Amino acid sequence: xxxxxxxxxxxxxxxxEAMERRIGQRCSGGFSVFYIRAAGRxxxxxxxxxELMAATREQLRWCETEAxxxxxxRFFYWNDSVGSYLPxxxxxxxxxxxxxxxxxxxxxxxxxxxxxxxxxxxxxxYFCEAYKSREEFYRSGHAxxxxxxxxxxxxxxxxxxxxxxxxxxxxxxxCARGGSGKSTLSIxxxxxxxxxxxxxxxxxxxxxxxxxxxxxSMICLNPDMYGKLPELRxxxxxxxxxxxxxxxxxxxxxRFSSGLPIRAVVFPEITEDRAASFQPMAPGRAMVxxxxxxxxxxxxxxxxxxxKTIAGRFLNTPVYRMRLGGDPMENACAxxxxxxxxxxxxxxx
Amino acid sequence: MYRINESKMYYDMADGQAIxxxxxxxxxxxxxxxxxxxxxxxxxxxxxxxxxEALRGLPGCPEDMGEQLDAFIAxxxxxxxxxxxxxxxxxxxxxxxxALEDGFFLTVDEFAEAQDLLLADxxxxxxxxxxxPVLRED
Lengths: 349, 138
Hints:
The structure holds two protein chains of two kinds.
Chain A: H1 12-25, E1 32-38, E2 41-47, H2 50-57, E3 64-65, E4 73-79, E5 97-99, E6 106-109, E7 115-119, E8 124-129, H3 134-139, H4 145-154, E9 157-161, E10 163-167, E11 170-174, H5 182-191, E12 195-198, E13 201-205, E14 211-213, E15 218-221, H6 223-227, E16 236-240, E17 246-250, E18 260-270, E19 277-280, H7 284-297, H8 304-314, E20 319-324, H9 328-348
Parallel strand pairs in A: 2-4, 4-8, 11-18, 18-20
Antiparallel strand pairs in A: 1-2, 1-3, 5-6, 6-7, 7-8, 9-13, 10-11, 10-12, 13-14, 14-18, 15-17, 16-17, 19-20
Chain B: E1 2-4, E2 9-14, E3 17-22, E4 28-31, H1 33-43, H2 48-56, H3 65-78, E5 82-84, E6 108-111
Antiparallel strand pairs in B: 1-5, 2-3, 3-4, 4-6
Helix pairs in contact in B: 2-3
């Protein structure tokens, strides 16, 4: 670790000015811009290339909104590699870090050249990574997930790796590891006419009543599950051949719920049962899956603050194991019945 | 015997690795494969003697495994992961050879922010006249 003296410190604004100059050099023709509304806040997204903007926009279409003069935050996304500027002696998980609690300035870089940063003076968030083809872009998952997670933490929100659906204005959070039926169950709920917030990432309020908000309108399904949902009408955006030909679909043609109160956590398990069933369970397993998958997806596996925040939000939320039946649509109907009847009953007790 | 301290800890096994999360402090704990298998048996109410017997039944068991197990349990207790609990006589204690893939030892790992040392700081190490990404030569 390099030793620093207070006398030679360069203020964060100088760093961010230099970075914006650098972005500007890469974008002499002006930025490609669009706006989204998430959890009631408007965010401006700026890109140095139209191609990059188009690929991101496809995933956020449902939340897209009109331009505003004073957005809540401004995101910059461009292709570059900060790795080429790192001294050779810098190795390890994180090469350069800044988390200045006093000013709120934040910077994190990865050895492969990605960079995530926040300038509190301009409320600007930055993400740069090496150029990716469209296929590589989709293979790396949901666009700007690290940036949204950082923004969410600054806005008393949490970006969770989970699904959220509801019925009659009441919602449940569905959490599970990959391959446990989370996406299929939530997408079946969408098709069954239940309230739908998300199949994979969901914004959750960080304090006050627990509430889930949508962000991405891209949904993901394994090809065999896609075959079991023939009524799904969502254009294919990409196929992830590296993950068993997982389909990435644009569900923005469907109606999303703009926000749902979360009354319970549902932890689905694939079983040989014919019909779905629900049982209350101790929160440990479900919470480990929710927290572990969230912090790994966000690259935050050392962030004790985030772990505490997520755990604290769900401490008094009932958790139910859902033993999945064989038919996705019947499972979705079972979720609707569970929320309408069983959960209402528990809430009224 | 022992059980997970559920007033502070979330616990689960994933792909043979134990994950323990202290939801009060936000601290994260893991263990190597053998440690995970042992922790899983202990939290299910299997007695340390039965666990030790199972470990000694594995090929290549070190002679000091008894001491290692005692130290492992002491660490789990000191970190408040395990607390006294009921014996589960029905719980079978079998430990498979796959638990030895990363070695015949028992560890508890703690993951916290402090482990990520800052190797350089682009705000403080940056060349003041040129700004990022040019770092100061010294």
